[in-house]
Amino acid sequence: MAEPVRLLNEDGTRLFREYVDRARKGSSEALPLHLLTDHATSLQPDFAATIVNQQFASRAEFGRYLVGAFKDVGRRRISREAGVWNWLALRYFDQLCPPSDSGARKVLATGHYVLEGRFAHNRYYRHLVRAAWYATELHGDDATILLTSAGKPSPGIGQWGEISEQLAGYQDILGSRTAILVAARLFLDHTGATKRGAASPDGGGSVRRLSTVLRQLAMTHDLRTAELGEVVAMLPNEFEAFRGGPNPGKKRSLLRRFIGGAEASG
């Protein structure tokens, strides 16, 4: 059943954060879903949007769903609205942190679920719900590389890994379609899975090294207008094992056209 999106207010956010902190320490207490509708902890926003508490197979599917749910709400209106993302994180918490048979959850850092204070990119980019929406809002189907989780064939929506951290953590990279396409060209195979070695923390040609190189290139090149092939050609030899890109796939997006080897600009 569809339900209207609300916002967690300061009290609701505080209580949700305290719940997350206890869950991180092993608490198996019930999820405080009453915070979602209690007028003491939540507010009706000045926009209309509804969601359904359905199951999602991946972060990419989750991102597409959220973009659809907020299609009539301007990006600027909700992008920095912490109350929206905290409300949604509570609503989908059973998927973000599925409970075990004992009720215990594997909980990441609190900032992946709860936003507080004024907007700051170095906090907001890690929020699992907002990150899925924002990446898809910016890049559509080409956001797959931002929402992948290396080594986890069925990651669900609660994963955060090295690829997400290194690409989404820098505004010059996250905001550049060409940079995202370069990462996809290098690190996704023809099935959309992450190639072996892409997320190595210290390996040559890894996503961490790509992040460093792209930020260096951004000092002298406009990554918003550069062409995919141009940027790939400028990468150092350590990326040679990845440079060939994945095999051709379905051509439903720029990513798939690039994967297929067609020429296009960023």
Largest sheet: 2 strands, antiparallel
Helical fraction equals 40-55%
Radius of gyration: 19 Å
The main sheet orders its strands as: 1-4
Distance between the termini: 40 Å
Based on secondary structure, the structural category is mainly alpha
What is the 3D shape?
globular
How many helices in DSSP terms?
A: 14
Mean pLDDT: 88
Strand content: under 5%
Strand element count: 4
Brief digest:
42% of the residues lie in helices and 3% in strands. It has helices spanning 10-24, 59-69, 75-79, 82-91, 93-96, 121-124, 128-139, 162-168, 171-174, 177-187, 207-217, 228-234, 240-243, 254-259, and strands at residues 3-4, 7-8, 42-43, 50-51.
Structural notes for this entry:
The structure is a single chain. The strands form two sheets. This protein has a two-stranded antiparallel ribbon with strand order 1-4. A two-stranded antiparallel sheet has the order 2-3. The protein is globular, with a radius of gyration of 19 Å. Helix content is 42%, strand content 3%. By secondary structure, the protein is mostly helical.
